[in-house]
């Protein structure tokens, strides 16, 4: 079948078949157009073949190489015929697309995408036979016994070749015996390695299942997560549809496969592949095994399209069950985190500060792990681990010192100077990349969050006109508890939540134009809707809480909350993209790490506090 987007070389995958050896074959894809072309490679036997990369993007008028590796085979087919098939799908991608932007939905014909498909066959090629080992003494004219006989008769000259041939036959038999022993030894070693690998995979599945049942959070972090003040329940639940990270838990409900002729599961029709006290293994493993065991004779040239459609159906069923499991987990942990966050913000004081310090410590650890990741470290030299750990402790102390001293500019400068000295006197050759990433970590993870302490606890003037303050119970602080700092913090939090919520809804309904390549799913239309929603919520809350009194101040405050939220999110997305990871951590199951949840709040606190201290003096802090 001709392909209008890509040139494919070769059109058939040829493997020089050899027993007990992995064999690779290169597939070259050339872009014939002036567009970015995304491709995806599938096979009817994924357990037998390894494709790297199986998805990618070919730049205009350029080429890309795909390496297909066939696993070592124990038996050779009788007629050296293989019925395995490969399917290459390609579609026009957006300009500037990268392999990370390739998704399963891009190759869905149901969505109206024009997908080019090319089928590739697998052909076994017999390797060249090595020459038979023959000793030098058996060659003609080289053996002294072939020219001289015991009694000098000429007839002995005819006996010499027969004697030499017998020696060659005996040597061939000996070589075959040695080859048989070697082959049996290799089979034994391969079986032992396979057994060890399967045992390791089974142990890993058990550990992940235990982590899934226990909620995925170590007990020592439960209290810290409950006190995190940088997120809310509404934002966490609404982020469900935006996050596409793979869920770490396994579904406890078995996958019910549709009736397929030619597919059978290993271990029977109804029993799972492995079973332990923790439940069946993952749906994905069962699906891959089913495809790997597909009857080859059912996938002829005429039925290839039907087999591929069946594979698509199985993938759709698996994706639906995975999304349902992710939604359930996100709602549960969203409720578990959102409620304590509201209590912490209302409490203020040391409760708010200690909770913020705990989240800052975990977030700084995630940041320095991102700096040490493979994607960033390959282009720079990360700081030593002991410097990263010391910086994490310094970042965690900054909010506490801010509450105690009020101003920590001198302390932060001194700490940065000491860290710079530690980097300069380290063993080896110091690098500027180490200094820059460390200083940015102190600023991003430690200094900026301190403005939330200044905002919540530093602005202690009472909001006298707030209606809820007049009815607030005396046991909980009375009217004096509702300060300007508390009202400003609640409005800022609500503005960030409104930005994410309305931007998500607007992007789903009207999104067409990508905002930036850092986060491909963000659109200009969704961003504009998020701006309008943030300003509207800010004005509504300011009217309800009677602060600030000026409409212009409320609009300006909403603008700052919006820009702090958007650029905080993009900054963390840029760090993760360079690091080559989807989430900054795995502390919160289904949501990622601390930085994934509080990225929109990091710059917002500093902007809100600076705006109130500098601009609202003109209108009075009321």
UniProtKB/TrEMBL annotation:
Localization in the cell: Membrane
UniProt entry keywords in alphabetical sequence: Coiled coil, Lipid biosynthesis, Lipid metabolism, Membrane, Nucleotidyltransferase, Phospholipid biosynthesis, Phospholipid metabolism, Transferase, Transmembrane, Transmembrane helix
Primary subcellular site in the record, as a coarse category: membrane
Keyword Protease assigned: no
Catalytic activity: a 1,2-diacyl-sn-glycero-3-phosphate + CTP + H(+) = a CDP-1,2-diacyl-sn-glycerol + diphosphate
Domain MSP: 5-125
Membrane-spanning intervals of the chain: 219-238, 331-362, 404-425, 437-455, 482-505, 526-545, 551-570
Gene3D superfamilies membership: Immunoglobulins
One Gene Ontology cellular component: endoplasmic reticulum
Residue ranges that the Swiss-Prot or TrEMBL entry lists as coiled coil: 181-215
This protein's pathway: Lipid metabolism; Phospholipid metabolism; CDP-diacylglycerol biosynthesis; CDP-diacylglycerol from sn-glycerol 3-phosphate: step 3/3
Enzyme class, spelled out: transferase
Protein's GO biological process: phospholipid biosynthetic process
Record-level Gene Ontology MF annotations: phosphatidate cytidylyltransferase activity
Region (Disordered) location: 123-174
Pfam families registered for this protein in UniProt: CTP_transf_1, Motile_Sperm
SUPFAM superfamilies assigned to the protein according to its UniProt record, in alphabetical order: PapD-like
Membrane topology of this protein: Multi-pass membrane protein
Family: Belongs to the VAMP-associated protein (VAP) (TC 9.B.17) family.
Protein's name in the database: Phosphatidate cytidylyltransferase
Organism: Arabidopsis arenosa (Sand rock-cress)
Top-level taxonomy: Eukaryota, Viridiplantae, Streptophyta, Embryophyta, Tracheophyta
């Amino acid at each position: 079948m001709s392909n209008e987007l890509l040139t494919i070389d070769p059109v058939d995958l040829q493997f020089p078949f050899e027993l007990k050896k992995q064999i690779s074959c290169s597939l070259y894809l050339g872009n014939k157009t002036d567009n970015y072309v995304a491709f995806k490679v599938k096979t009817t036997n994924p357990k037998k073949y390894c494709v790297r990369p199986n998805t990618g993007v070919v730049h205009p008028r350029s080429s890309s190489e795909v390496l297909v590796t066939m696993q070592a085979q124990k038996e050779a087919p009788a007629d050296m015929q293989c019925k395995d098939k490969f399917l290459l799908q390609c579609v026009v991608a957006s300009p500037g697309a990268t392999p990370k932007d390739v998704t399963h939905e891009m190759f869905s014909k149901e969505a109206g995408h024009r997908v080019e498909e090319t089928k590739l066959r697998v052909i076994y090629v017999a390797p060249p036979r090595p020459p038979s080992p023959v000793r030098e003494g058996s060659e003609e004219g080289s053996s002294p016994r072939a020219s001289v006989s015991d009694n000098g008769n000429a007839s002995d000259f005819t006996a010499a070749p027969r004697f030499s041939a017998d020696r060659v036959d005996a040597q061939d038999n000996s070589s075959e015996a040695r080859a048989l022993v070697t082959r049996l030894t290799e089979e034994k070693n391969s079986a032992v390695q396979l057994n060890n690998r399967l045992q390791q995979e089974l142990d890993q599945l058990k550990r992940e299942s235990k982590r899934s049942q226990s909620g995925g959070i170590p007990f020592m972090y439960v209290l810290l997560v409950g006190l995190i003040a940088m997120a809310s329940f509404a934002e966490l639940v609404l982020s469900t549809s935006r996050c596409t990270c793979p869920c770490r838990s396994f579904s406890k409900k078995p996958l019910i496969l549709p009736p397929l002729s030619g597919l059978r599961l290993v271990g029977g029709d109804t029993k799972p592949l492995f079973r332990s006290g923790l439940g069946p293994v993952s749906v994905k493993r069962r699906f891959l095994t089913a495809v790997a065991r597909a009857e080859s004779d059912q996938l002829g040239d005429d039925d290839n399209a039907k087999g591929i459609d069946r594979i698509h159906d199985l993938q759709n069923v698996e994706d639906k069950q995975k999304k349902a499991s992710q939604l359930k987990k996100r709602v549960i942990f969203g409720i578990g985190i959102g409620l304590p966050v509201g209590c912490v913000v209302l409490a203020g004081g040391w409760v708010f500060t200690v909770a913020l310090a705990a989240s800052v410590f975990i977030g700084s650890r995630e940041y320095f792990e991102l700096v040490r990741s493979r994607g960033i470290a390959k282009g720079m030299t990360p700081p030593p681990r002991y410097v990263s750990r010391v910086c994490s402790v310094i970042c965690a102390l900054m909010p506490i010192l801010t509450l105690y001293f009020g101003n920590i500019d001198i302390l932060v400068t001194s700490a940065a100077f000491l860290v710079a000295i530690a980097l300069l006197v380290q063993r080896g050759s110091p690098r500027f990349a180490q200094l820059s990433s460390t200083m940015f970590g102190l600023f991003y993870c430690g200094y900026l969050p301190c403005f939330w302490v200044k905002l919540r606890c530093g602005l202690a003037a009472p909001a006298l006109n707030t209606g809820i303050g007049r009815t607030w119970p005396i046991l909980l602080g009375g009217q004096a508890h509702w300060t300007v700092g508390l009202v400003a913090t609640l409005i800022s939090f609500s503005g960030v939540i409104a930005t994410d919520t309305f931007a998500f809804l607007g992007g789903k309904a009207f999104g067409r134009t990508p905002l930036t390549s850092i986060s491909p799913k963000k659109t200009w239309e969704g961003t504009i809707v998020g701006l309008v929603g943030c300003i509207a919520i800010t004005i509504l809350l300011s009217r309800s809480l009677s602060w600030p009194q000026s409409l212009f101040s409320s609009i300006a405050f909403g603008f700052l909350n919006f820009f702090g939220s958007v650029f905080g999110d993009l900054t963390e997305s840029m760090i993760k993209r360079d690091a080559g990871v989807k989430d900054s951590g795995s502390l919160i199951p289904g949501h990622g790490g601390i930085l994934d949840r509080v990225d929109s709040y990091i710059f917002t606190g500093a902007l809100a506090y600076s705006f109130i201290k500098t601009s609202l003096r003109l209108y009075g802090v009321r």
